């Protein structure tokens, strides 16, 4: 029997004895002892790189904390469990973080709940490969950060949500978040420089939806909200590809893309959206 298994057996025995009445010790003290033993077992399994077993033990520790009405401790235990689970079982990491979030919300700790929602989003986008779930988690985190007046962090989450929505071809949803972040960024000299990129991405998503009139209307709105936008390369590029799309001119579209890419390298996300825009006007989509 390994050291971790021995500690688990000792913790199980202590937990099983904690339900009965004793003149010599309270059940809450036994829950606390069981909690400490489960935590020790979790740490030992972590040392042994037995990640699922480690996570299981920290969840058991959390259950002991709940039985002792120690919700703050339980939230931390579930969070610790998620760190172990993340190494091998991302779906269990997400489930543990959801328990953490529930407990934080009950205690009014919304900033901490937002941090854990963001962590869920990152797990689902990377280890879990669930882009829809990641999108919803980034949105939830953004709303919680906004409620706590952490606007810069909220904007970061909404930007991530917008890009995921675009990747998933949920263009209306992407537009909503890009425009939301752009509007929030206009009032600060530190963030205003990024607004032209948010407008560019929003405009591309409008066009990817196939609605030229709405795209043109959106461009007009952006130029009213930020009078400097109309003179930027981003605005001129949007006008160029919108006109080419409207005329069904694949060659003009490709030329506008190549010219923009020559000075401002297109990233993978923008390239994917531009391919989606070009698809209706070209039998074999290619940006070159």
UniProtKB/TrEMBL annotation:
Pfam families: SNAP (PF14938). One of its GO terms (biological process) is intracellular protein transport. GO terms for molecular function: soluble NSF attachment protein activity; syntaxin binding. Gene3D superfamilies: Tetratricopeptide repeat domain. It comes from the Eukaryota. Keywords: ER-Golgi transport, Membrane, Protein transport, Transport. InterPro entries: NSF_attach, TPR-like_helical_dom_sf. Belongs to the SNAP family. Required for vesicular transport between the endoplasmic reticulum and the Golgi apparatus. This is Soluble NSF attachment protein. It comes from Leucosporidium creatinivorum.
